[in-house]
């Protein structure tokens, strides 16, 4: 795990280390089982085509969880996630599987963040971040915001 | 204009469910995301952390857009306020031409960590329903608010999910 980050270590415009993710049809199946979202939009090609999205799309909530990981990885064990929000503005399609364990070649998504504000409120050292997911073309599909409380060096 | 058959659900409770947060569910959830944080499955590691035990990732509440809430709560241990309101509302939406639902996004406030073994109660209500015009035509936007409580009746988190009906 990365070294613990402190409130004093960051300033406005600080860029969080990006978190790469690859959505695959396999990951979507695991997510459906783990989250209980069995909407066929995410696993049934004929259904997805009939709805008009072409092929099964990545669950919005899975993308949300990638962004949550971006924040929890960055804030470290002493950090606390206080607020989180994101919107599923554009659709993403998973890579298909080439072998049971490996996906086909395709896009890699990048979860990114930037510090927008740092302040102390009710004794908590807070950092507001803008967060987002870029698809393989660099387009933002999932914008959001998050607030973490970081430990302070005093 | 949305018919009264739909707007009458604004402010209504649409379900209360309770479920135990299970270690296995947490592990499966973290694994699906390809999380690497040992707090979510390594008991020894978690015991030495400030949490004292395995915790669930923030957002481990199932799919609140789904009515009733908490799909990780697939076998809820207790349901009060049986979610007939959900079916009635969905029927009214389908009748008005809104048969499909898309997850639009979510907002969370987190107050307490969620530990394996906790008993969570989720109370959901419809905060708002409004019609909007977009690229795909008319849509109905629903905001579903779910408040999560632990067994000490402390608020653990609040989720406000946007469900887009089209």
- Write down the secondary-structure element order of chain A: EHHHEEEE
Instruction: Count the DSSP helices of chain B.
Output: 4
Number of strands of chain B: 6
Mean pLDDT of chain B comes to 84
Share of helix of chain B, binned: 10-25%
Q: Mind sketching the topology for me?
A:
The complex is a heterodimer of chains A (154) and B (166).
Chain A: E1 19-21, H1 25-35, H2 45-51, H3 60-75, E2 80-87, E3 109-121, E4 124-134, E5 140-149
Antiparallel strand pairs in A: 1-3, 2-5, 3-4, 4-5
Chain B: H1 4-7, E1 13-20, H2 23-33, H3 43-48, E2 78-80, H4 84-95, E3 101-110, E4 119-134, E5 137-149, E6 155-165
Antiparallel strand pairs in B: 1-2, 1-4, 3-6, 4-5, 5-6
Write a structural description.
The complex is a heterodimer of chains A (154) and B (166). Chain A is α+β, with helices and mostly antiparallel strands. Chain A has helices at 25-35, 45-51, 60-75; strands spanning 19-21, 80-87, 109-121, 124-134, 140-149. Chain A has a 5-stranded antiparallel β-sheet with strand order 1-3-4-5-2, covered by helices on one side. Chain B is elongated and about 55 Å long. Chain B has 4 helices and 6 strands. Chain B has one domain (4-21, 59-165): Hotdog Thioesterase (Thiol Ester Dehydrase, Chain A, Roll), CATH 3.10.129. In chain B, a hairpin with a 5-residue loop joins β5 (137-149) and β6 (155-165). Chain B has a 6-stranded antiparallel β-sheet, with helices on one face. Chain B starts with a helix and ends with a strand. Chain B has helices at residues 4-7, 23-33, 43-48, 84-95; strands at residues 13-20, 78-80, 101-110, 119-134, 137-149, 155-165. The chains are: A alpha+beta (154), B alpha+beta (166). The interface between A and B is large, with 34 and 37 residues. β2 of chain A pairs antiparallel with β3 of chain B.
């Amino acid at each position: 795990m990365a070294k613990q980050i402190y409130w004093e270590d960051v300033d406005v415009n600080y860029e969080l280390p990006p978190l790469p993710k690859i959505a695959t049809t396999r990951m979507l199946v695991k997510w459906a089982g783990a989250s209980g979202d069995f909407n066929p939009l995410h696993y049934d090609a004929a259904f997805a085509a009939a709805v008009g999205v072409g092929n099964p799309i990545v669950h919005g909530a899975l993308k949300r969880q990638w962004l949550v990981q971006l924040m929890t990885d960055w804030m470290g064990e002493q950090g606390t996630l206080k607020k989180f929000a994101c919107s599923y503005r554009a659709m993403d399609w998973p890579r298909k599987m080439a072998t049971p364990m490996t996906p086909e070649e395709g896009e890699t998504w990048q979860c990114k963040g930037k510090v927008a504000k740092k302040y102390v409120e009710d004794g908590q050292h807070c950092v507001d971040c803008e967060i987002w997911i870029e698809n393989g073309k660099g387009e933002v599909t999932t914008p959001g915001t998050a607030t973490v409380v970081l430990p302070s060096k005093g | 204009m949305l018919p009264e058959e739909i707007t009458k659900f604004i402010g209504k409770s649409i379900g209360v469910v309770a479920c135990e947060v299970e270690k296995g569910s947490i592990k499966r959830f973290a694994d699906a995301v390809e999380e690497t944080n040992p707090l979510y499955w390594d008991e020894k590691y978690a015991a030495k952390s400030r949490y004292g035990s395995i915790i669930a990732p923030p957002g481990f509440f199932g799919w609140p857009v789904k009515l009733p809430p908490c799909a990780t709560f697939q076998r809820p241990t207790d349901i009060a306020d049986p979610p007939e309101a959900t079916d009635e509302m969905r029927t009214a939406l389908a009748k008005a031409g809104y048969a499909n639902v898309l997850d639009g996004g979510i907002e969370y406030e987190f107050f307490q960590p969620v530990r394996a073994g906790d008993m969570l109660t989720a109370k959901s209500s419809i905060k708002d329903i409004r019609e909007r015009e977009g690229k795909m035509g008319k849509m109905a936007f629903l905001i579903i608010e779910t408040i999560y409580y632990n067994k000490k009746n402390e608020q653990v988190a609040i989720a406000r999910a946007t469900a887009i009906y089209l």
